[in-house]
Amino acid sequence: MSRPFASVRARATLAATLVVAVALVAAGTAVLLSLRSNLLGEAGTQAERSAREVATGLAFAKPYDDLPLDVDDRPVQVVDEEGRLVAASEDLERISGTGVDAVKPQPAATARDGGDDDDDGADDDDHGESLEPGEIGARTTVSDGSATIDGDTEDYRFAAVPVETEDRGRLTVYAGAPLSAEHGAVNTALTVMLIGFPVLLAVVAWVTWLVTRRALRPVEGIRREMAAITASEDLARRVPVPDTHDEVARLASTTNETLTALESSVERQRRFVADASHELRSPIASLRTQLEVAAAHPELLDLDGAVEDTVRLQRLAADLLLLARLDAGERPADTRVDLAALAREAAEGRRGVRVRAEEDVTVAGSRGQLERVLANLLDNAQRHARSAVEVSVRRDEGPHGAGGDGQTAVVAVADDGEGVPAADRERIFERFVRLDAARSRDDGGAGLGLAIARDVALRHGGTLTVRDTPAGGALFELRLPGA
Predict the structure, then answer these.
(1) Pair 145, 95: CB distance under 8 Å
(2) Which residues contact 395 (CB under 8 A, 6 or more apart)?
(3) What distance, in Å, lies between the first and last C-alpha atoms of the chain?
(4) Worst-scoring range by mean pLDDT, 3-7, 165-169, 351-355?
(5) 65-85 per-position pLDDT tens digit
(6) Strand partners, 94
(7) CA 285 to chain centre
(8) Alpha carbon 106 to its chain's center
(9) Which CATH class is domain 1-222?
């Protein structure tokens, strides 16, 4: 089942919007909590200030009627040690959160009615601090509740302050500060966030959409050009490279480099197929002609020529198969090969070939492929030598051709021929290339031997180069990393 398409722009926009949304929610929550905490703290401070103002009057033995109980219409209660309400704000109609629900002062001789458990709890809280007569307690107890004053009900933060009097004993003053400012500020901030955050998220999504569209516009151009190249099969075309010097520009450059390499590879493949077809056509046509003549006139059969063409065709087919395997990325075997012994075996039976080899020069690789390299180099050297070919095998402590820093095995094949012109020293390693003056089809070469030798050397991590000998002949040097 195919997955629904989601563009990079859509995913980037969604991701950016989600990240900003999470950040805004976290920041908004922190702001609301901090704002509420600060406003509650300020309300608690105001309540404590009012409670201490009343407690100061009690400490100086002021009568209850002279106490500031109705300042700013805030609820105030004065409770004695036994939990009786002895003074309260005049318009107080209902109160909760202080531990004493009574709103009208009770005479000292009147027994308490109802709410005993709550009163005891408040009294226990007040008895936690030892005070001298006329002294106000340093500890303030804060609680939240509500009160109704003159018909208006609000939430309050209450502060309880104990005071020790000389004639009335321990008293506790409860004073409240309204929380309307806190509720209003928090609600206002919440409303602003609920309205502003979606607008801000919409702006973030819109800006991200525009920015990603601008950033990905070159990518879309690259995609369209690649689609056109695929449809036209024209590997000479290139994708546009934006003048931004960023990742997209590097992507376009890398794409063009890939297209260049692909074009070169396809062109080499086409030339290879064309040249292989041409090279195969000649021996096949010759062999067919000889067989047709032999079928009509058996006495005219050139058996030696037919065998020669068959061998030549067999060698060419083997070369083509080996090149195909190398092009397919066939990795060489990882076995130890003694190059000195391999060179002696390759030179055995060849006229005019001399071998000078150090002992125990070994490499890791395919013995069959390395045999093919030496055979091709010796065939090439004998084809061009006047009288002698010399093969030397040695160890070199310098870095090998693949860039390593260990011991290097070197095989040098030198002839006393005319050498290779400097302009042709790389061209001779191309496939189906024969120098007209010395490499003809009549000499038995198809132009694949040196190309095969170079490819095998590269796949073994080494190099194959050619230069002149001091005497003027050609010196082919194979360098491979030591085992």
Answers:
(1) yes
(2) 358, 361, 407, 408, 409, 410, 482
(3) 52
(4) 3-7
(5) 888 888 778 899 999 988 899
(6) 148
(7) 59
(8) 77
(9) alpha beta
Tell me which architecture the domain covering 335-481 has in CATH.
Answer: 2-Layer Sandwich (3.30)
Distance CA 335, CA 191 (A): 78
Q: Which two tokens stand for residue 373?
A: 């390299």
Q: Tokens in use for 61?
A: 């033995």
- Encoded amino acid at 191, one letter: T
C-beta of residue 437 within 8 angstroms of C-beta of residue 448: no
Q: What is the pLDDT of residue 87?
A: 92
Q: Does domain 247-327 have CATH number 1.10.287.130?
A: yes
379 neighbors 349 (Cβ within 8 angstroms): no
Q: What is the DSSP secondary structure assignment for residue 61, as one 8-state letter?
A: T
Q: Which residues contact 291 (CB under 8 A, 6 or more apart)?
A: 306
The domain segmentation of the chain, as residue ranges, is 1-222, 247-327, 335-481
Q: Do 56 and 136 touch, CB atoms closer than 8 A?
A: yes
Q: How confident is the model at residue 6 (pLDDT cuts 50, 70, 90)?
A: low
Q: How far apart are CA 328 and CA 315, in angstroms?
A: 20
The model's confidence at residue 113, banded by pLDDT at 50, 70 and 90, is: very low
